[in-house]
Amino acid sequence: MAILPDLVPLYLRAGLEVTVQSRAGVHALASDEAYQAAGALVVDAVEASSVDVLLHVRPLSPQAVGKLRPGAITVGFCSPSAELDTVRALRDARVTSFAMELVPRISRAQSMDALTSQALVAGYRCVLEAAMRLPRFFPLFMTAAGTVPPARVLVLGAGVAGLQAIATAKRLGAVVSAYDVRPASADEVRSMGGTFVTLDLEAIEGTGGYAREQSEERAKRQQELLAPFIAGSDVLITTAAVPGRPAPRLVTAAMAAAMKPGSVVVDLAAETGGNVEGARPGEDQEIAVPGGTIRLLGMKDAASAMPADASRLYAKNLANLLLLMRSCPTSTTRWSPGRA
């Protein structure tokens, strides 16, 4: 949800009117009555042509953009590199759109960094999904009936989502290791309690804390070096992404098939092409391997699996950006008391 009841007063004090579609916040535990008590107008359907600012979560469709008035502003995730039809529709409709995934990763903009806040939720959730599917305990248990060894978890990609996955798996008692193409991630992995996997490859650090795309030859060599680490893991979680590009292919079907029966693979990048060959967003597949099967889960809109806290963080990101625009004395946008 792009706005929660406790943020409505912030918009009202800034001179804005807030209109919310009925039951839009129900999954985020925000009732229509809570919005009304906070001062928002709750309607059956928001008339896009009547708003000055439209706050949204997922990218808008070209049809939705066509209903907005010229000069309107939208704020939300836009996926501009993938949603080209929507970008053209925004241009033709003379609508200004602020893409939350393009907020710069600088100190001033940390409170508006929705990619980071949602990656935090996604990294946590993917470990829970893996734990529910793994037919073993995560932690070590020493009992009168014998010792149960801990699960071994490997995380590929040590960005915000990867680091949260490491921390969550560690809290559950697993033995956690992680790999990232950026050597600078090693200290962060260790700070979360994980072991950093070092491969004999050159670094490919990108800008803004992201990795940059690697060559085909390097990618193949990386797969060869990662193969034994993957085969020795009970759980594999992949979170690698390159902004504006398809997700890098880190794990081939043959590499996944070398894992032990009962192992679980969770691909957090499935929506952008997948780090794991064969992963499909929103699908939980059972893959045959020698001696049994493994589970391959392609995550889809992972943050929405925890709508209450995902909305809490996302709505505050949007409020921080929009209210900064509202208060900025040098802004070229002419704001009269409007409706959001």
How would you describe this structure to a colleague?
Helix 5 (114-133) runs parallel beside helix 6 and helix 5 (114-133) packs antiparallel against helix 10. The two termini are 14 Å apart. Helices cover 32% and strands 16% of the residues. Residues 330-337 have low confidence and may be disordered. The protein has ten helices and 14 strands. The strands form four sheets. The chain has a seven-stranded mixed sheet, with helices on one face. The protein has a three-stranded parallel sheet with strand order 3-4-5, with no helix packed on it. It has helices at residues 8-13, 32-38, 62-66, 84-93, 114-133, 160-171, 185-191, 216-231, 253-257, 307-327, and strands spanning 19-21, 41-43, 53-55, 73-76, 96-99, 141-143, 146-148, 152-156, 175-179, 195-196, 235-238, 264-267, 284-289, 292-298. The longest helix has 21 residues, at 307-327. With 340 residues, the protein is an alpha/beta fold.
Task: Offer a few descriptive terms.
three-stranded parallel β-sheet, 340 residues, 14 strands
